[in-house]
Design goal:
With about 450 residues, this protein is α/β, with parallel strands linked by helices. The protein is built from 13 helices and 29 strands. Helix 2 packs across helix 8. The longest helix has 14 residues. The chain is globular and about 75 Å long. About 40% of the residues are buried.
């Protein structure tokens, strides 16, 4: 018997193939995936690896203007006949009560083994065992990055404990291995080391443990996410390891051929270039129409064009868009200092600003927080920002640590309310040569108020 396994991750609410920020059709979304799945032979196991509730304006609109009882993302999962959805970090952005409520109508199983409540019970099912018609048993374990408390509002995760993803996965692998013929781990986290060279990737904070989890004996298929880095790898233990891009740009297709005593398996990442499933898309046509109408609403006018044409130069030369955001943040909060960041593909604002442009520039539902910080801590944050730059061939360039394993323009902050100078010729951690507030030197022990988005306030980036 051949088992087909289709897996998505980090779909971020991309139900249709419409890019709402740019108002055009792209090779993304579940509507295209639906066409592909309809052509697959049974048995076909369909899995999602988290970050499905947030990141798309159609879901933001629905949350404020619900059209029916079933959340559109859950309705989409049900129509495609997903067997399992694992939780991602962004699925907590609206709180655990909202998460529990919207996932109730899901016809499959919601997984997450390493989040437990006050009674030390898993918040959702830790695993599922599916029996095929030939009697073969497929085990599926779900875990998520344990780093969620560093980003999420405390009220959204009150009473929850986030256990170590590696240790939790190890425990459940040991529990299930003897009970199943093929074992899958869905881990909503990325890789802390290169899967081929074992070299470290980025800062070792525990946010990503995919490499370490891949070394656990007994896992046949490890499906990762979170980093949005398309990856496919087979290690020495014959474990297949995959990660997809975001927004349904591609998906994993794994085939498992069972014999009486063993199996062979193969994996590929498939670009989502299929035609839209018109029957599937029709179910969301009215929601899409209302969303498009909502996005076209103008909300402001400005005297200056603030379009962004180069992400690097926007940061190196302090684009007016950053000045605009910081001015707004300071005026809304009366904070002494403001720090602003923008996503990787920010387009900036035209002279007439509509909600579509807001959605394009602010893809996450962040809120503002005002912190009281000592001058020494603000200086350390500035030094971190200065690491974005390097000198290449005598010219200012983007440092490789903000490019590999993925681009991180969003982790560069532009500050206002202070004046500061970086000397990129100096070593990292020693580049801040001057910082003043209203002409006076920023004092190490003195506390200042600073407004940032909640992602940065919680330590993100």
């Amino acid at each position: 018997m051949r088992l087909n396994i289709i897996y998505t991750s980090d779909v971020h609410g991309q139900i249709t193939s419409t890019n709402y920020a740019l108002n055009k059709q792209e090779t993304i979304g579940l509507s295209r995936l639906s066409s592909y799945i309809k052509k697959q032979e049974k048995p076909c196991l369909i899995l999602d690896n988290g970050d499905f509730l947030q990141g798309n304006v159609i879901l933001d609109y629905y949350r404020k203007h619900p059209l029916n009882d079933a959340h559109p993302m859950i309705e989409a999962f049900n129509r495609i006949d997903y067997d399992v959805i694992n939780l991602g970090n962004h699925d907590f952005n609206y709180g655990q009560d909202y998460l529990k409520e919207v996932t109730k109508p899901f016809k499959g199983t919601v997984l997450c083994a390493n989040i437990v409540d006050q009674n030390q019970q898993p918040l959702f099912s830790p695993y599922r065992i599916k029996t095929l018609t030939n009697g073969k048993k497929i085990g599926i374990i779900g875990t998520v990055t344990q780093y969620i408390p560093h980003w999420e509002k405390p009220s959204h995760i009150s009473g929850l404990t986030f256990l170590n993803a590696y240790e939790t996965t190890l425990n459940y692998v040991r529990k299930l291995r003897a009970q199943v013929d093929y074992l899958i781990v869905l881990y909503h986290g990325g890789f802390e080391k290169d899967l081929t060279t074992s070299q470290s990737i980025g800062r070792q904070t525990g946010e990503n443990l995919g490499y370490k989890i891949s070394t656990i004996e007994g896992i046949d298929l490890l499906l990762c996410g979170h980093q949005h880095m398309p990856t496919i790898h087979r290690n020495q233990a014959n474990t297949l390891v995959l990660q997809t891009a975001a927004n349904g740009k591609n998906f994993g297709h794994i085939t498992v051929d069972f014999s009486a005593e063993s199996f062979t398996h193969h994996a590929e990442l498939v670009d989502n270039t299929m035609d839209d499933d018109k029957e599937f898309s029709a179910q969301f046509a009215e929601l899409e129409r209302q969303t498009q109408e909502y996005l076209d609403q103008p909300i402001a006018k400005t005297m200056q064009d603030m379009k962004i044409t180069s992400q690097f130069l926007a940061r190196a030369k302090k684009h007016p868009m950053f000045q605009f955001i910081n001015n707004l943040q300071r005026s809304l909060t009366s904070a002494q200092i403001s720090a602003a960041s923008l996503p990787n593909d920010a387009i900036g604002f035209s002279k007439t600003i509509d909600l579509r442009a807001v959605a394009a520039n602010f893809v996450y539902p962040n809120t503002l927080q005002v912190l009281k910080m000592q001058g020494r801590d603000i200086k350390e944050a500035l030094e971190r920002t200065a690491e974005y730059f390097t000198i290449k061939d005598g010219k200012l360039a983007m440092d490789k640590s903000f490019i590999h394993p993925k681009k991180e323009h969003y982790n560069y902050d532009v500050y206002d309310g202070i004046e500061y100078v970086f000397d990129i010729r100096k070593a990292k951690g020693q580049r801040l040569t001057q910082v003043t507030i209203k002409g006076a030197e920023l004092e190490d022990e003195k506390r200042y108020t600073i407004v940032v988005n909640n992602y940065r306030a919680q330590g993100g980036g």
